[in-house]
Amino acid sequence: QAKKAGRGCYRFFHPSMSEQTNDHVILASNLREAIADRRLTLVYQPQVNVATGALHGVEALSRWNDPVLGAVPPGRFIPVAEETGQIRALGAWSLRMACEQMANWIARGVPVPTVSVNLSAIQFQDPELVSQLATVLHQTNVPPERLIVELTETTMIENFEQTMTTALAIRNLGIGLSMDDFGTGYSSLANLASLPLSEVKIDRSFMKGFGSTGNVRQVVTAIIRIGHTLGMTVIAEGVEEPDQCNELRAIGCDVIQGYYFARPMDTASLDTWLRQRRAEPVTCP
Ligand code: C2E
Ligand code: MG
Ligand code: MG
Ligand code: MG
């Protein structure tokens, strides 16, 4: 456990540790059942093109509503799934669900251009990942350009060579590749420049104080410029305020994902949201 916390991060034993471990075991066993019984769901958060107001795509996010534990956020269960190896089953499930949903939207003529799926670092090191992606696309009959997979930079710490090989294979299939949470943790411009990314997502921590202070604005402006130089679509995450939306549009950000436009929602709510938008398109104020 302490080792997994990573370099430069220390964890000390304290009295509540055994309690936490117990919690963790309960969470892990309930999660195993939830995955087996197909009780996890996906919600979809719209991503809006700020220049045109058009829907760019949606991001699929896992939800777990446990009968005993209640709603467990992915920030809690994804790490447990990674530590217990359940992330393989969970990841395969969310990939399939998202592609089946995209096939459904295509069949019904619902205008959702792309669906983005989060991939854990562990999935990215799995030699089966590329054939798994190809199989799911083939079986659901979804064109590869309708799917985007998101990776984070923790993926590259372990094995850069492997990550690069997998990334190139994914792009060769025609699938989009997105760098999630850029600007946090192990972020580096070297990774951004060397990987064959189609998209970069600026982490939502940049949105704090974005409108008021000059420094954050300058940094975000620089990331947008670099992203564009590298031929990527730039998405800002966690946009909640109209001012943030306006500022981001002014400095050339392409797409916005955040509560300002919409929260993650189930497919029925997304249908309604899309219908309402057609009557009354939402853009920055
Ligand atoms: P992420 O991929 O960076 O997803 C964006 C997160 O930001 C989501 O949290 C979303 O609900 C939240 N968000 C979006 N707009 C706003 C906003 O305006 N304000 C605030 N405060 N938050 C906003 P969520 O759904 O709790 O997911 C957390 C993380 O869990 C995700 O971060 C992703 O890393 C991970 N995750 C979720 N589903 C999956 C999955 O199926 N597989 C894997 N590997 N990871 C997943
Ligand atoms: Mg993501
Ligand atoms: Mg993110
Ligand atoms: Mg994330």
From TrEMBL:
Domain (EAL): residue spans on this chain: 24-278
Source superkingdom: Bacteria
Protein name as catalogued: EAL domain-containing protein
Lineage of origin: Bacteria, Pseudomonadati, Pseudomonadota, Alphaproteobacteria, Acetobacterales
